[in-house]
Amino acid sequence: MVLIHLSDGTVMLYDCNVTRENEVEVLTYLGQAMGTKRAIDIFINSHRDSDHMRGIRQVHAYFPVRLVWDSGVVGTTPYSTEYQQYMDLRRQVGFREVKARKYGTYGDTMVRVMNSKDTDYPDANAQSLVLKVEYRGSSLLLAGDADYRPWKEKILPLYGERVKSSILLAAHHGSITFFDDPSDEKYYFTKHVRAIEPDMAIVSVGPNVHGLPDSEAIDLYARYSRGSKQGNKVFRTDRQGNIKLLLKGRGAWSLSPSQ
Known about the structure:
By secondary structure, the protein is α/β, with parallel strands linked by helices. It has helices spanning 23-34, 56-62, 81-93, 148-159, 191-196, 215-223, 237-240; strands at 2-5, 11-14, 16-17, 42-44, 53-54, 68-70, 95-97, 102-106, 109-115, 130-135, 138-142, 167-169, 200-203, 234-236, 244-249, 252-256. It folds into two domains: 1-97, 4-Layer Sandwich (Metallo-beta-lactamase, Chain A); 99-259, Metallo-beta-lactamase, Chain A, CATH 3.60.15. It has a seven-stranded mixed sheet with strand order 8-9-10-11-12-13-14. The model has no long low-confidence stretch (mean pLDDT 97).
């Protein structure tokens, strides 16, 4: 879950994973982080997997969602309770199926959609919404669960150096799929992360049965991140807890863990 305050006052929530175990903690944190504003202007569902929409009904009960963005791709869990609750909310508040290669401006902030629905990719993860939030020369790139393919075949050829970002929210909870190109048995695909050239990568991950984050992926994020002034290259939510990022402009930023 990423709560985003834009410079014109717009509030976005990128993905949602509220469980029985973390519900009180998450809702309490959202209440503190929302400040005086009590509504979420846009809920952005990167893709319709349960762990990216779970608990949105509970969030909506406390912080009403005004609009939903997603790619329009069905996803992998259409018969789950989480999916049905998400689709109910989507119909109730209204939705927008956002397209790749589009952007919107919100005061001094620009939000670019770099990846979305694409019939070239049967896998829903590869059609995740990949967003770049830009503020006066500082930026955050949200990679969703997209693997190497859309980056190699679509995003990099189109955007080139414009993918460069101050902070990278690592793909798919630190999965190696971001780097693992099966056609190359010798080397991992790293052209995208070298172009992004983040100061730091943040891995959003909690307890799971998939062995995430992948240790090789963590090593690659660390290898291709430039590092903060303190020498940090990778933060993980399972170790650093809730993390606050402030984009200050001109490439400057601050990260505060354990919020």
